[in-house]
């Protein structure tokens, strides 16, 4: 019996106890170099935020009921430097270079700074940074070819469903204020101490990490056993960005158009606090509160020091 089937057989027991947020949730790997994956159950939830939610932006509505008809797998962690390095070694892929770094008020291109040479990602266990949507597409294509499985990026709906633990957790519970330092690396007292001139509000708690990413899995998992769903790095999704959900799918699939100018990103990054996002790219947009409904956007070729991804794959 392969690892996926074993994980699926165990999943119902783990999901029954999901509210305890145990890191022992069943997981599997399709190959030695592959990311560790968590089975996410099927279900239905209300996507987006109500007009009354603090920090809400208009791109978070209108709310709608979304049905995730089948279980899917989502990476337990954000893709790491080590995992991306295995892909590059095997394929010879040349990823994005000259990564812009956030300097407190603006981004500055830094020649020689890239995914494998970055001051904010100090080891193979940190999330890979400075990768573009094209780079992520190449990585998931490699995983799919290597394993024969349908690896991809998650849709926006799948991402929010997983971040909200199947819709069981309200948007604001445990993700704003001091609770953020329990679940993720965000703009907080540690950042303000390291960079006193930091121009935007920070969360009034200390997550132990300042102006840098944290190794994946450094904080508490959510009820599905997924780590860093808030903070650390923004995560690419499959979706083409749209200003509202007016024409968005309700079956959990991605919103895709032929001429896609911007991609949706989710989850917030290490430099986002309780106020408005710092405008680090001139394109990412969001309220910076790391709420599961919060949405950002970026061009497919853009790569930054707070941008990463995690992979999904279809269940059989």
The topology string of helices and strands comes to: HEEEEEHEEHEHHHEEEEE
- The share of residues in extended strands comes to 15-25%
Let me know the number of strands. 13
Q: Gyration radius, to the nearest Å?
A: 18 Å
**Distance N terminus to C terminus?**
14 Å
Helix content: 10-25%
> Largest beta sheet: what is the strand line-up?
1-2-5-13-8
Textual characterization of the structure:
- Helix content is 18%, strand content 15%.
- It is α+β, with helices and mostly antiparallel strands and 316 residues long.
- Strands 1-2-5-13-8 form a five-stranded antiparallel beta sheet. Strands 11-10-9-12 form a four-stranded mixed beta sheet, with helices on one face.
- It is globular, with a radius of gyration of 18 Å.
- Mean pLDDT is 84; it is low at 4-23 and 276-288.
């Amino acid at each position: 019996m392969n690892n996926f089937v074993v994980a699926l057989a165990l999943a119902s027991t783990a999901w029954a106890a999901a509210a305890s947020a145990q890191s022992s949730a069943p997981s599997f790997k399709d190959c030695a170099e592959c990311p560790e994956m968590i089975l996410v159950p099927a279900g239905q939830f209300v996507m987006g935020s109500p007009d009354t939610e603090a920090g809400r932006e208009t791109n978070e509505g209108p709310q709608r009921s979304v049905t995730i008809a089948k279980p899917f797998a989502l990476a337990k962690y954000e893709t790491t430097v080590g995992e991306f390095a295995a892909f590059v070694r095997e394929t010879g892929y040349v990823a994005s270079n000259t990564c812009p770094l956030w300097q407190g008020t603006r981004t500055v291109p830094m020649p020689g700074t890239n995914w494998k040479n970055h001051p904010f990602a100090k080891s193979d266990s940190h999330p890979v940074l400075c990768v573009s949507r094209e780079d992520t597409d190449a990585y998931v294509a490699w995983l799919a070819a290597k394993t024969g499985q349908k690896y991809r990026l998650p849709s926006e709906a799948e991402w929010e469903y997983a971040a909200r633990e199947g819709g069981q957790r309200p948007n604001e519970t445990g993700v704003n204020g001091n609770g953020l330092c329990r679940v993720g690396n965000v703009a907080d007292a540690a950042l303000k101490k390291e960079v006193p001139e930091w121009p935007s509000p920070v969360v009034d708690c200390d997550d132990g990490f300042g102006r840098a990413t944290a190794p994946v899995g450094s904080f508490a998992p959510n009820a599905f056993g997924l780590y860093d769903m808030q903070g650390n790095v923004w995560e690419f999704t499959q979706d083409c960005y749209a200003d509202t959900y007016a024409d968005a799918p309700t079956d959990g699939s991605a919103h895709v158009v032929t001429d896609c100018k911007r991609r949706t990103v989710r989850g917030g990054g290490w430099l986002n606090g309780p106020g408005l996002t710092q405008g680090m790219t001139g394109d990412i947009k969001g309220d910076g509160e790391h709420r599961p409904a919060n949405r950002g956007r970026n061009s497919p070729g853009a790569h930054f020091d707070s941008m990463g991804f995690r992979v999904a794959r279809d269940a059989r």
